[in-house]
Amino acid sequence: MMFSMLAWNTDDWQIDLTDALTMNRHWTGNGSVADYIPELRWGDPNQLGIVVTSNYGSIKAGDCGMEFTLQSIVKILTLMLALEDQGEEKVFSHVGSEPTGDPFNSIIKLETTSPRKPLNPMINAGAIAVCSLLSGQGVEGKMSRITSFISTIINREVGYSHAVHTSEKETGDRNRALAYFMKDVGVLIGDVDEVLDLYFRCCSIELTCSELARIGYFLAMKGRLEDGCQLVSKATVRLVTTFMVTCGMYNASGEFAIHVGIPAKSGVSGGILAVVPDTLGIGIYGPSLDDKGNSIGGVKLLQDLSKRWDLSIF
Ligand code: GLU
Fold this sequence. Notes:
The chain has helices at 10-24, 74-86, 88-91, 108-112, 124-131, 138-154, 162-171, 173-184, 192-203, 209-220, 234-247, 253-259, 296-309, and strands at 49-54, 57-62, 68-69, 206-207, 264-266, 271-276, 280-285. It is an alpha+beta fold. The protein has two domains: 5-68 and 208-309, DD-peptidase/beta-lactamase superfamily (Beta-lactamase, 3-Layer(aba) Sandwich), CATH 3.40.710.10; 71-203, 3-Layer(aba) Sandwich (Beta-lactamase), CATH 3.40.710.10. A hairpin with a 4-residue loop joins strand 5 (264-266) and strand 6.
């Protein structure tokens, strides 16, 4: 059944969604929960949930009641704010726009690439550099701009998990190494500890699947809120969704583009935010991860839905 808003019948799509979830839930047994941030190890590997939001409302299947931390998914939100704050030219003088083919926390290309800036804003180094560009008074001021930006999109006051933030702060030495290197070469602006604290807090922001889907729908609508207000420019949304295609799914982004074919961003907590331009926002939670760090059940579920509903943009 090809997805068409004209033919939207909630009952039919709901049957399809429930069936796809049932058919793909078993994949959760083939992965494992991230534990390099100790607090994330409490995620239940058997869980898998999805919410799909369109102009006609939302449908859901599986385990979508709980909140989880955004982790890398927040990188698309901080990038949007930095682009709106500083403009494209300034942002891309600190971070590049090429996929890496390396793991998200890799340090290797930071030294070997010329100029010495992170290859893109979706890897940790790039996202940390982007955090250093955000406007606002201190960590608190910047953090409250980010949370109120997200709160405006999802229409709820959001907060962050202090337990995950502390856990990441205590164990985030790789990110510390990336940040100090970038400070040394002039890519990261400001105080390293403050920038990292902001980055760790952003990664610890908690949302539900429905709220992820709502952010996805906001991107599908090119930065327009439901009341018609254009919160961010279409140019910013175009940039961010392009990065989601080229590097949103870690170093499995090429494979994901072939098998699923829609902009998406995942995080090591097991969340995936996906966008079908002009049509749908999708939020997924499934903490069992594959070897690239993507929700294993989530990717299979999206692959199935893309085929059933002909969602690929390519
Ligand atoms: N907070 C995580 C880190 O910096 C984000 C990684 C991710 O979700 O890809 O390691």
